[in-house]
Amino acid sequence: MTRRFLYTMGCAAALLAAGCGGGRKQLVVAFSQANNAEPYRAAQNALMTRLFAADPGVRLVISDAQQDNSRQVAQVETFIRQKPALLIVAPNERAALTAVMGQAMDAGIPVICLERDILQPNYSTYIHSDNVAIGRLAAQFIVDQLQKKYGTPKGNVVAIRGLLGVEGEINRDRGAKEILDRYPEIRIVADPVADWIQAKAKDRMTEVLRAQPHIDVVYGHNDPMAVGAYLAAKELGREREMIFVGVDGLGGPAGGIRKVMDGVLAATFVYPLCVDKAVEIGLRMLREPGFRPEKEYVLDSLMVTPENAAEMYQRFTVDGQ
Amino acid sequence: MPPILRRAQSFAALLAIFLLAIIISPVAADGSRIFLELGNLTDILRQISLIGMISLAMTFVILTGGIDLSVGSILALSTALTAMFLTRWWPTASYGSHIALAIAAAVAVSTLAGALNGVAIATLRVQPFIVTLASMIGLRGLAKWLTNNENIDIGFGRDVAARFAALFREKAIVIGAFAGAAAVFWTLLERTVFGRQVRAIGDNEKAAEYTGLPIRRTKVWVYSLTGLLSGVAGVLYAAENHQGNPNAGVAYELDAIAAVVIGGTRLAGGKGSISGTIVGTLIMGVLTNMLRLNDVDSNVEMMIKAVIIVLAVAVQREKNA
Questions:
Q1: How does DSSP classify residue A304?
Q2: Which of B154, B240, B315 is facing A70, going by the closest CB pair?
Q3: Which of A56, A198, A293, B20 could form a disulfide with A224 if both were Cys (CB 3.0 to 4.6 A apart)?
Q4: Whole-model pTM?
């Protein structure tokens, strides 16, 4: 009997501690995040929290789907019941979230689709960046570096790929190959798959280093994989033989910009968090009665090299990261 | 304590959480409690249906003193096969037979996978934990290999795959499938010789063997049924998420085991019930919904769930003593 009481009281206490935040009349903005565990997405959450906190009339609620489609669908369904003033969804995967975001639109809730596309335009606006363009930028940087090194664009490149089948991986690869394919003397000598993960990239790169006596550039589809490749090369004393290029360009002490400042990466390309734009457009949707957002906003990337890294670090580091 | 009272105790826990959910439910604009909206209550049922179905079968497995870690991988295999069958194979078929055959094929392969688990456990006498750990890894690999690591998207057009998804993501069908499976498994356990054999094996396998019960055959059946229900859950997963995702269902085995254990089934086998498992599934579902409706931080949500699991089992210990 005592145990059953404890049981109930435990729940009640936990809820009181966690749940009773907003008594005043505030506009609720609900954000369904695909997976808090990825650094990129944690940075999105931190920035969004900070930007909305500046507006006392808005209360932000974030749910974490932990990279599980069913869980995210359920969380969006629950948000629909709560009728927030604005719903922002960073979909875990395209197909899975399409229908439920349509339900939110049908329920009259304005929806911002953040960073990843869905199969039908079930949103008020879609704010994203362009991975093909980022791939092209990275490849152009690589071509320029090789040109500088040999006087002509030639050399051996290792590409370290993210999780196969994911949009970011496909397009960062495609954009880069569009450029690199124009230079027959630039060869991609290996392109192992490391699923975005630093530790895996280190293992794969170790194998590549054993097989390839000469490497000029490592192009990691994200910064952690480029760093993993660097660690592998360093272990074999070969890190000065090649340069490392990454993508994502997150701020904070663990992000890629810091790695450029530290001399680990030669460059990284900022994959925009898309959050500042989302908050700006979101607040206008909430506050300006006649405002109609564009159906789509595409955000540009930025190149981070040792020359501008310190400035970029200031700009992209969010408090509390 | 007599069995009736014991069962009343897990219902009491569910009732306590349900009442708590009503009391702390946020209130909609018209003054009604959001938690009690019919739409929200059916949301909960739909959201627990897939794990619920797997939990029904897991109850049988645990009653025999076994465990099945491969359910999430079987679900992924079934989901992938369903989507591949509908989008790639046999395009000339009529819609009805195409859908029927896709489901039949996915469920048949899943049942076969479960049967192989059962045969390995019953004849090789390897522990269920190890056999199903191996098939958890192997079947995940098979699903990824078949799909070449890609999500098989099911679109929203007028093709057979889209129609399949539209039909089988209907709440009534998903909840109906769970209810039907629950009725069948309750009858099997409580009203048939097979059900008594399942309990007898878990209670005391040696004794069951000396009495001449068909232990091997029963085990093969139990694991086949688990494959079957995981397969059905996989078919519904494909419809709900509009895709065949080889990465689906990760950690579902743990959710299912949690539901079974909260429902009062003894992990060592022999004691437990289908009604308890249904209550256990409902407790997790209502709890999740309650916490989400109140915007409890998802990290806190995990901590609260941990407390609930331990408390629930503590209550079981009291009553089993």
A1: E
A2: B240
A3: A198
A4: 0.78
